[in-house]
Amino acid sequence: FALAAGLDSIAAATLANTAAALVVRRIGNAVVAADELQAAILDYEMEGS
Question: Which InterPro entries does the protein's record reference (predicted)?
Fold first, then answer.
């Protein structure tokens, strides 16, 4: 979906990896909410600057 939405391949991979990192922290089936994913990406960007 990220590529279809216009993200480049690096941004799409970063988005997918961030979502996966959130999911593997949980037991069982997990869903990542959009606001949770957004917060994680913002945290990642703040750490990099």
Answer: Ribokinase-like
